[in-house]
Design goal:
The structure is a single chain. By secondary structure, the chain is of the alpha/beta class. Helices cover 42% and strands 15% of the residues. This is F-box protein 33. InterPro entries: F-box-like_dom_sf, F-box_dom, LRR_dom_sf.
């Protein structure tokens, strides 16, 4: 049903003069023509037959214009604004006019793209960035090479089919060829993104995330392949120049994140950022362990320009005592979130001697009372973690991920004693290939460290364990200690171990029985997945 309201029109200017009278006549004639076209459109939509040849002719002309294609662009954009992105794409297939309205800037203020590093993604990315790159305000791009490699045997999976003499050489050659193709495609995709937004002055949030599996499984091997793909370094230099150009052209940038992106950010990249933008930046995240030697992506002197930072994410070896002092200056706003990445590659090549001591952390906490720290540690030795974990760190979340070095029970016990007032998230991952020998944190201990963690850390809301042995009775104890305050308890089924007495007394599946006991303690609202015990409160 269409409803039209008659609104009194203002009197045209200059109506009392002769020239003004002529303008009024033309204005009324135009208004009459518009009303006639509108009346014909209504008749066409209603489908009412008209008498007379002139009316039928008029009706035929109006009927040709009636339909979805005749709607004004503003109305189509308004309709699109109520639809989710998939429905917009489907609706745009109606006609070319609707397809032109699909990429109206107001419809795409935010754009989040998850890309598989594959040649098939390139034409789609080019089309999307050509349409939206010049006006999008918030852009987040994630590159994932792991899924692409897993189809043909990723690094370290031993997926080669050749055996016997020469089998390993063939498998190594196939893997090398795959990685060369991945990195070649990676460079093209990154170039596509950066070229499309180089002149976007409306960009407010810009985030780039590479595949962390490249960092974990390949290390410096990725740089070796990169030199084969781009031997003269022209593409890498072009990418770095484009990134600096984006920073220098920005006028509204408040959020900048670049994590695990090979060879994009350099120690001189932030110098391209104008002072007016650096002074208003609220979030800065620069995570890249490929910086050679003692070079850092940001120095304490550079950090002095970022007086409005609320959130900061850096490599732990780059966060020095001088940086902690800069953040305590009176001209800086209180920092709310500090995320630190600790990786064995960085610890091996960079010294921990310049890291903040306990007094620096106390001063920073006095300046920023609401500061919370998130630490992500990859393959860090226990002796290095003992140096890093200062008592005054307001540690809220910690994530351990290991491929070689396992976390000891002493480290878990230290965390539960020092950060009992702050800790809310504890994630323990051990990605070993041999599932028959998971390490047991409770060996030679009267109490399991994870049980003590649940007892001491009263704010603990998430506990995830993978690749470490967890005894069934300890899981029940953790659930009883934290109760409904523990929102997520996630343990892989392979990690659970049972006492022989528990297995002998049960006629049903022990894992299923354990799930029921844990869920009953935590909350009646729970879910179970095939590979996980995952108990959550909605």
């Amino acid at each position: 049903m269409l409803l039209f309201l008659s609104v009194p029109q203002p009197r045209p200017p200059g109506a009392r003069t002769r020239v003004g009278a002529a303008r009024v006549v033309r204005w009324r004639r135009q208004r009459l023509q518009q009303l006639r076209r509108l009346r014909g459109l209504l008749r066409g939509l209603r489908g009412r037959p008209e008498a007379g040849s002139r009316r039928r002719g008029r009706m035929a002309l109006c009927g040709q214009a009636a339909g979805a294609a005749s709607l004004p662009s503003e109305l189509i954009v308004h309709i699109f604004s109520f639809l989710p992105a998939p429905d917009r794409l489907r609706a745009s297939a109606s006609c070319s006019h609707w397809r032109e309205c699909l990429f109206y800037p107001a419809l795409w203020p935010q754009l989040r793209i998850c890309l598989r590093v594959s040649p098939a993604e390139q034409p789609r990315l080019e089309f999307l960035m050509r349409k939206c790159g010049w006006f999008v305000r918030e852009l987040r791009v994630e590159f994932a090479a792991e899924n692409y490699l897993s189809g043909g045997g990723g690094p370290g999976d031993g997926g080669g089919s050749d055996t016997g003499t020469g089998g390993e050489d063939v498998e190594s050659l196939q893997l090398s060829t795959r990685w060369l193709e991945v990195l070649r495609t990676y460079l093209e995709l990154v170039l596509c993104v950066l070229v499309s937004i180089r002149n976007n002055r409306n960009l407010q949030k810009f985030s780039l995330f590479g595949d962390i599996s490249v960092l974990q499984q390949q290390g410096s091997l990725s740089s070796t392949y990169l030199s084969k793909v781009d031997p003269d370094g022209k593409k890498i230099k072009q990418i770095q120049q484009l990134f600096e150009e984006i920073l220098s052209n920005s006028r509204q940038l408040k959020w900048l994140s670049c994590g695990f992106m090979l060879e994009i950010v350099t120690p001189t990249s932030l110098s391209s950022l104008p002072n007016s933008i650096a002074n208003t930046m609220e979030h800065l995240s620069l995570l890249d362990n490929n910086v050679p030697g003692n070079s850092t992506l940001i120095t304490a002197v550079e950090l002095e320009r970022f007086v409005n930072l609320r959130s900061l994410a850096l490599d732990f070896c780059d966060f020095t005592a001088e940086m902690a002092r800069v953040l305590t200056d009176s001209n800086h706003v209180p920092l709310q979130r500090l995320s630190l990445l600790v990786h064995n590659a960085s610890v091996m090549h960079k010294s921990l001697d310049n890291m903040p001591n306990d007094e620096h952390w106390k001063a920073l906490l006095r300046k920023s009372a609401s500061l919370r720290v998130y630490i992500m540690a990859f393959d860090i030795k226990s002796e290095d973690m003992l140096k890093i974990l200062k008592p005054s760190i307001p540690l809220e979340r910690i994530h351990f991920d290991s491929y070689i070095t396992c976390v000891s029970g002493a480290i878990v016990d230290l965390i539960s004693r020092q950060y009992d007032k702050f800790l809310t998230h504890f994630i323990l991952m051990n990605d070993v290939i041999d599932t028959s020998g998971f390490p047991d944190l409770s060996d030679n201990r009267n109490e399991d460290p994870l049980v003590l963690l649940a007892w001491r850390c009263t704010k603990l809301s998430l506990l995830a364990v993978h690749g470490y042995t967890v005894w069934a009775h300890n899981l029940i104890a953790i659930a009883r200690l934290r109760g409904s305050d523990l929102k997520v308890l996630e343990v892989t089924e392979e990690s659970i171990d049972f006492d022989q007495g528990e297995l002998a007394d049960q006629d049903v599946d022990p894992v299923h029985n354990l799930i029921e006991q844990v869920c009953t303690v935590l909350s009646p609202v729970s879910t179970y997945h095939a590979d996980f015990i995952c108990t959550s409160v909605v």
